[in-house]
Design a protein that fits this description.
175 residues; alpha+beta; Aminopeptidase; 4-stranded antiparallel β-sheet; 3-stranded antiparallel β-sheet; 5 helices; 7 strands
């Protein structure tokens, strides 16, 4: 990484770059688009609706069934959006089984540049500030890149779970 990666709260300055990244995510079937709030944000004019929804999520307001408070961060390098990270403030039954405290996605064209490892490292620092002592991070069994990222960040494999035909690897990281 030549420029320093930062995790920031959604910022209008990066809106066009974010939207470009979301278009790449849409083409990648492994990424769950709803995690980024793409249904609220289709043009820079929609940014404030999106931003207000992310503030509500962070505060635990108007959450859907089985949702927990979470903070969505954008990963940026220079002027470019390169990924997103969702930090869940606590776990529920489903997150304990399949999702974990932190979910992250690197824009497909920005992969294999070390961004995922740095995003998770910074996300773990933010989790520690929320008084999370051990963070659960999961990945699909076939996602070798994510498995390596988790292990580089101190992930200790606990087990493999299956839900609706999808196998997840579960790792704990002591903070």
């Amino acid at each position: 990484m030549k420029q320093k990666l930062k995790l920031i709260l959604p910022n209008r300055k990066y809106a066009l770059s974010y939207l470009k990244g979301e278009k790449e995510y849409e083409k990648d079937k492994r990424i769950i688009a709803a995690g980024g709030g793409t249904n609220l944000f289709h043009s820079p004019e929609d940014f404030y609706i999106y931003k207000n929804r992310m503030i509500e999520r962070r505060k635990g307001i108007n959450l859907g069934k089985d949702w927990v408070p979470s903070t969505l961060y954008w990963a940026v390098v220079g002027e470019k959006f390169v990924g997103r990270l969702d930090l869940r403030h606590r776990l529920n039954k489903n997150l304990l089984l399949m999702g974990g405290h932190i979910g992250y996605a690197v824009v497909p064209s920005e992969r294999k540049k070390g961004y995922g490892t740095e995003m998770l490292r910074l996300g773990l620092k933010k989790a520690k500030k929320l008084c999370i002592k051990k963070a659960l991070v999961t990945c699909d069994e076939k996602n070798i890149g994510s498995k390596k990222i988790i292990e580089k960040n101190g992930g200790i494999f606990e087990n493999k779970t299956k839900n609706e035909g999808i196998y997840k690897l579960r790792y704990w990281i002591k903070l």
